[in-house]
Amino acid sequence: MQNRFSDNFSGDLSGGDLGISGFYNKTRTVGQGNQALVLMTIIGLGLVGAIGSRLAYLQLNQGIKNRQIAETNRVRTVAKPPVRGNIYDRKGRLLAGNKLSHSVFIWPLAIKRENWLKTRREVAQILDLDEDTIQKKMTGTSVNSTNRVRIVRDLTTAQITRLQEYGAEKEGIDVDIESVRYYPGGQLAAHVLGYTGEMNDRELAKRRPMGYRLGDVTGKMGLESTLEDRLRGEWGGTQVEVDGAGRLQQFLGQKVSKPGQDVTITIDRDLQKVAEDALGTHKASIIAMDPHTGEILAMASRPAFDPNSLSGRISPAVWKELQGKDHPFVNRALSVFPPASTFKIVTTTAALESGKFKPDTILQTYASLRIGGFTFADWNHAGFGPLGFPGALKWSSDTFFYQVGQRIGGPTLIDWTRKYGFGKKTGIELPEESKGLVADDTWKQLNYKMPWSIGDTINMSIGQGFLQTTPLQVAGMFAVPANGGFLVRPHLVKDPAKREGRQSMNLKPSTIETIRKGLRQVVDGGTGGALNVKTIPPASGKSGTAEAPPGENHVWFGGYAPADKPQILVVAFGEHTGGGGGKTAAPMVLKVIEAYFNGGKPLP
């Protein structure tokens, strides 16, 4: 049997048929050693070639990139903020600058993790802070971060001394000198300049892609906010070497920070101070402007605040005081109110440009008029007899302009209101500007489910009803007759390259002449007699008094001088001050114009 199984197995092999039994035949040894050696050699050469080619690729093609990555991991920069750019007035006098101040920083990289709780407790005791306050500052910061975290700015002498004594034996706590925003005028031009402060978490998340870091100080309001990119500058810092675990090894050098750009603005510091003093304790605002260029010479708002109190750590007492005032952060020059009778400049323009009235038109005025089922009274409840447009402006007759509004209609009046720039922002470089409201039929249908009525047109013709404008927009309106028919763009930054030119209103010369004649009569014998004095050149203007129940009236006065060749335009507004525009607001305007011409002394 065995031989037969063997014969059969041999026969199978000689016949060329490889079976399973032949695969396991242990008696065949010819050629096995050489084949294994060749196979292993081929595999070895393949592996060496693959590894070599990969090493060559990494060394030759990726070497520079990999060295940069390694260098980045080894060398880090301890960031140092730049010095913020200064803001100067039109004559080169400092309005916003920087002062040196001591701040305390915590450097996570230099503190051992096991020492953190003790360090936090001791720093909190020295600075009189809650530990939670410090921990909140550190939230989101890596233990290996090279960025120092500012804990407190503007340290007192006592705090500096204690921290220096403490720092001699503690790692990771730095008392350093840095620049802090400083406003030498205190409250002067606070709403124009704004203030700076550290970013909160929401602001940081938004600005981090732009290179901002934890603890960065940014503009929070006014020009500080608008001009942030120009004022900010570029970061520098100290380069340090760390090991693979991120531990500090040595200092390598300094990268000098680049200071921000200095900016010159159109404000005149002296005139600004006069304007703010003129407001007294009223909730009010004043704008002084060059009527030909739109340069803002002064912009004052009351109540105000001291931006210096917001540059460092804000104490609870200071914050309570600021919150206790009547909205001191609100710039009333850019907030909306009904323009009252100052708006009669627009109504006169719409009437004369519509072709439905001529410059020499005479209308009878009355104690009141019955229109659309409602009675509309004149402000003196008696009327002024027959008047033309100049006389109607002089005495601010309401019934005269009721008749004008009724004849020209709402759409025409609304159209000219928008041509004067109302209902949209002027484009001044302040983020707090409101656009106001010029209502129409669509707006009223949407908000009141009612159509525009003749009563709405009557109210609008004297600057009341739904109409809402800012004092800055009203100043732009006065500039049109003052400069001969051009709409100017109010601006604060002296940068002619970026300033837009004047826009012609394409008014008839007779329209401009009629309005200017009426505004001159307002001062020379009308409601603006407060400006009819020898301390300023002959002036022109217009008063306004707006009902504002349940509070006292709002008051307005806008004026410019000299009447024939205006150099300065001033608008004053008082919120719930009571009285009339000619009695309350006009004296404010007078003080600013007096300061502009000969310092308030009698003119020769």
Automatic annotation (TrEMBL):
Keyword Oxidoreductase listed: no
Compartments where found: Cell membrane; Membrane
GO BP, one annotated term: peptidoglycan biosynthetic process
GO MF: penicillin binding; peptidoglycan L,D-transpeptidase activity; serine-type D-Ala-D-Ala carboxypeptidase activity
Source taxon at top rank: Bacteria
Protein topology in the membrane: Single-pass membrane protein
Predominant location: membrane
The Penicillin-binding protein dimerisation domain, residue ranges: 80-248
Parts of the chain that traverse the membrane: 36-57
Homology family: Belongs to the transpeptidase family.
Protein name: Penicillin-binding protein 2
Gene: mrdA
